[in-house]
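[Q] Does anyone have a clean C-alpha cell version of this?
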Amino acid sequence: IVYAHLRRDFVNQWGLVHTRQHEELVWTLPTGLLALTAFQQKDGTYGITLLKHIATPADHGSLGLLKELIPEGLCFVQLWSAALLAQGMVAGLCGVRPLAHRHTLQLSPTVPAAQGWITVQGLVMGAHLIDIDVSAQALRVHHQRGPQELCVQLPYVLAQVVASHTGSDCALGSAWQVAVGQTLAVQFGAAV
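[A] Here you go.
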C-alpha cells in the first residue's frame, strides 16, 4: 500500500520528489531507496528505470561524476549517488544478500523477463570471491576462492520454481553447498 502511494503521489518522470508541491527536485538518495523497494516488491522493470535515472547525471559535467540531483545539477562529491547505483544493481536487481560470517550467500533476483543476463564479477564476500550471473530464467554462482564451501540459498518462493541444477551434490531444494572452483547453475521452470 505504501509503495503504491509513493509511486502515485510522490514520483515524477525522474524519480522520488524531494518535497511534493514545494520542490519538484529529484535526489539520488531517495530515488535509490525507492529503486530498492521496487526490487523488493518484485517490480524489476520499474527498479531498472529508476537506476537508469540515477545514472543520468553522469551525462552532465565531468566524466565519471554522479551529481546528487536528477537529471543534472548540484554537488558532485556525493558518494551515495554512485553507491546507490551499485547497490541497486547488486542488492536490488541481483538480489545479493551476503552473510559472510556464515559463509552463506542468499540470492533473490528480480530480473525482468525482457532483460538479458546480469553479471557481477569478483564480488568479495568475507574471505570468498565469487562471480554471479542472473537472468529471469536462471542463475550461476562461481566460487573462485574461499576457506570452505559456500552455501547458496534461495528464498522458499523462488526455490519452488527450480527445475534443475548442476554443480552441487545436494538435491533440489532451497540451499546448495558450492566447493571452491565449482559453479552452481540453477534453471527455473518459470520466470522469476
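[Q] Thanks! Anything notable?
[A] Residues 79-93 form the longest helix (15 residues).
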